[in-house]
């Protein structure tokens, strides 16, 4: 379970990255969906 949490945190960090492009952000959101995680995005 710890590995799952680390992966979710890594993808969330990418979702918040200011220099990520739209295609990469879409991939991050897709990955979060597969990990059954809800991104907390406040753009």
From TrEMBL:
Name used for this protein in its record: Uncharacterized protein
């Amino acid at each position: 379970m710890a590995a799952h949490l680390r992966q979710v945190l890594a993808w969330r960090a990418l979702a918040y990255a200011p220099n990520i492009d739209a295609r990469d952000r879409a991939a991050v959101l897709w990955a979060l969906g597969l990990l059954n995680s809800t991104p907390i995005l406040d753009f």
